[in-house]
């Protein structure tokens, strides 16, 4: 009985629609988790699951993956390792955030490109694919929040009026409220709302903020373009059949 259940779960996880739904679920958990700083550890577990799921969802279905897929999966594992290394090291080791910023920026950027490409090559837009597209948009905000948080540990004072508390040799997890605020600011940039309660003060933090503000509308434009194209093709096909 146990073997049957395990086999059923494995078959479900191999399905693209199930993987995309799980990806969105983990993404929502990671996003909402920042509203509860005491549960920040659950948020970063969500980040880990996102990276691992991306390495399964956004690769080819071939039994012999090409070098690009192998490199992509390796990047996903590297992103998980660098994140936990950054989380568990003392704040005094400020440069531990650099591998995190680089790995997550490349991973999410590459994932978005793969997602849009997959979206464009799909003939039929399904519910699961729309969930994947939604997850992709949220991933940009989550990755931007991680990069900005790492930037705050590398260059304290990057975002004002936020201030890094003097926590001695404590790890990043001890400053959960600060990084929750930074992730909030990342989504403010992503959606181009611009409340103005948090501002980037240093050149690098300003550049990351601008890049996030550009990436959000650009992603929406690409996805909407594909959707409109699919809808127009469907109408054209129906008119020809008549």
Structure in words:
By secondary structure, this protein is mainly α. The chain has one domain (1-241). The chain is built from 8 helices and 2 strands; from the N terminus they run H-H-H-H-H-H-E-H-E-H. The chain has helices at 2-14, 16-33, 40-57, 67-88, 97-121, 127-154, 176-190, 203-241; strands at residues 159-160, 199-200. The chain has a two-stranded antiparallel sheet. Helix 2 (16-33) runs antiparallel to helix 3 and helix 6 (127-154) crosses helix 7 (176-190). The protein is globular.
* Uncertain spans: 1-14
Average pLDDT score: 80
Count of individual beta strands: 2
Task: Specify the helix fraction band.
Answer: over 70%
Task: Return Rg in Å.
Answer: 20 Å
Element string (H = helix, E = strand): HHHHHHEHEH
Number of helices: 8
Q: Which sheet architecture does the biggest sheet show?
A: 2 strands, antiparallel
Task: Quote the beta fraction.
Answer: under 5%
Strand order of the largest sheet: 1-2
Structural class: mainly alpha
C-alpha end-to-end distance: 52 Å
- How would you describe the shape? globular
Total number of domains = 1
Please provide a brief summary of the model.
The chain has 242 residues and is mainly α.
Can you tag this structure with a few keywords?
globular; two-stranded antiparallel sheet; mainly alpha; 74% helix
Task: Give the SSE layout.
Elements: H1 2-14, H2 16-33, H3 40-57, H4 67-88, H5 97-121, H6 127-154, E1 159-160, H7 176-190, E2 199-200, H8 203-241
Antiparallel strand pairs: 1-2
Helix pairs in contact: 2-3, 2-6, 3-4, 4-5, 5-6, 5-8, 6-7, 6-8, 7-8
């Amino acid at each position: 009985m146990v073997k049957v259940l395990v086999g059923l779960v494995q078959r479900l996880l191999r399905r693209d629609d199930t993987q995309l739904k799980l990806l969105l679920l983990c993404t929502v958990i990671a996003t909402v988790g920042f509203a509860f700083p005491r549960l920040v550890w659950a948020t970063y577990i969500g980040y880990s699951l996102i990276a691992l799921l991306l390495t399964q969802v956004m690769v080819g279905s071939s039994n012999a993956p090409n070098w690009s897929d192998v490199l992509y999966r390796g990047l996903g594992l590297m992103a998980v390792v660098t994140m936990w290394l950054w989380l568990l090291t003392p704040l005094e080791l400020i440069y531990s955030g650099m591998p995190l910023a680089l790995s997550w920026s490349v991973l999410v950027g590459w994932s978005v490109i793969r997602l849009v490409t997959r979206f464009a090559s799909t003939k039929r837009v399904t519910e699961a694919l729309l969930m994947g597209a939604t997850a992709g948009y949220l991933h940009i905000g989550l990755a931007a929040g991680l990069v900005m948080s790492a930037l705050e540990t590398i260059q304290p004072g990057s975002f004002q009026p936020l201030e890094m508390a003097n926590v001695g040799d404590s790890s990043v997890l001890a400053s959960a409220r600060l990084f929750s605020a930074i992730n909030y600011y990342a989504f403010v940039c992503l959606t181009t709302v611009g409340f103005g309660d948090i501002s980037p003060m240093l050149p690098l933090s300003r550049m990351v903020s601008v890049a996030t503000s550009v990436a959000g509308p650009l992603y929406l434009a690409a996805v909407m373009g594909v959707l409109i194209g699919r809808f127009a093709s469907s109408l054209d096909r129906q008119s020809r059949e008549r």
